[in-house]
Design brief:
Layout lengths: L2 H13 L1 H11 L3 H33 L10 H13 L4 H4 L2
Helix pairs in contact: 1-2, 1-3, 2-3
Length: 96
């Protein structure tokens, strides 16, 4: 097929893997090339976001430095302890 369709499927697979698979099935007739393009795009996207997440966190912290700390009440702490120990089924009995 066209080189641009391979590139487009590769780039779409880096961001949204399922959409890349669906587009690959529609645009590319061969199974091997469709498979290689979508898997390659998925692996590249995973590696890219894995390696750049620390940079994104640093930039976000520089842009928004004044984040206020959340203060938890006794009630919210109790609900968290109940959920951890007994599960979600217990919370409606204690929550008002």
């Amino acid at each position: 097929m066209d080189v641009f369709s391979y590139i487009f499927v590769f780039l779409l697979s880096t961001i949204k893997f399922l959409a890349g698979i669906l587009l690959s099935v529609c645009l590319q007739p061969g199974f091997v090339f469709s498979y290689l393009t979508t898997v390659g795009g998925g692996v590249f996207g995973s590696m890219f976001f894995l390696l750049t997440d620390s940079l994104l966190i640093k930039v976000t912290n520089r842009l928004f430095p004044n984040r206020k700390r959340k203060i938890f009440s006794k009630k919210s702490r109790l609900l968290v302890k109940l959920r951890k120990n007994f599960g979600l089924m217990v919370i409606p009995f204690f929550n008002k």
